[in-house]
Amino acid sequence: MAELTDHERATLKRAAFGVVYLVSSADPGFLSMLRESAAAAGAFTGARGLARDVLTSGALPTLPRKDPVRVEAEVLPALTESLSILRVKAPDEVDNYRDAVLSAAQRAAEAAHGVNPSEAAVLAKVRAALA
Questions:
Q1: Domain layout of the chain by residue ranges
Q2: Which of 7-11, 44-48, 67-71, 104-108 has the highest mean pLDDT?
Q3: Are 44 and 16 a contacting pair, CB within 8 Å?
């Protein structure tokens, strides 16, 4: 398995968890957030290889809470940076990471009441950042 620095691991993790936060904030509500978080966690634990290792170990990342605009401004570039890191250090893991993040985002969006227009917009931005 590729050796990533602590900073690189943190970037991958912050981006993936940030995506889930963006989806959750697009459909506010405490119960929705719980359902969405549980659904996303299932996607992360179901990931393979390095993606699973990074996304299921260590502390949760710190994100600028209560400000989805700031989170989006941080998370979308972090997704792009994460793919760049993996392309250099672990090219065979790019698809695993991309699949885990997309699966978590999709599961979170579907978890509470189906995908609403705000969540669909977030999913489109995430897909674009991971393209």
A1: 6-129
A2: 7-11
A3: yes
Counted residue by residue, the chain has a size of 131
Report the predicted TM-score, pTM, of the whole model to 2 decimal places: 0.90
Tokens of 123: 């999913």
Q: What is the pLDDT of residue 1?
A: 64
CA 33 to chain CA mean position, Å: 15
Would you say 74 and 64 are in contact if contact means Cβ atoms under 8 Å apart?
yes
> 128 is written with which tokens?
């674009």
Q: Is 126 exposed, middle or buried (0-12, 13-18, 19+ CB in 10 A)?
A: buried
Residue 42: how many other CB atoms lie within 10 Å: 14
**Would you place residue 30 in the very low, low, confident or very high pLDDT band (cuts 50, 70, 90)?**
low
At 116, the amino acid letter reads: N
Q: Is 81 exposed, middle or buried (0-12, 13-18, 19+ CB in 10 A)?
A: middle
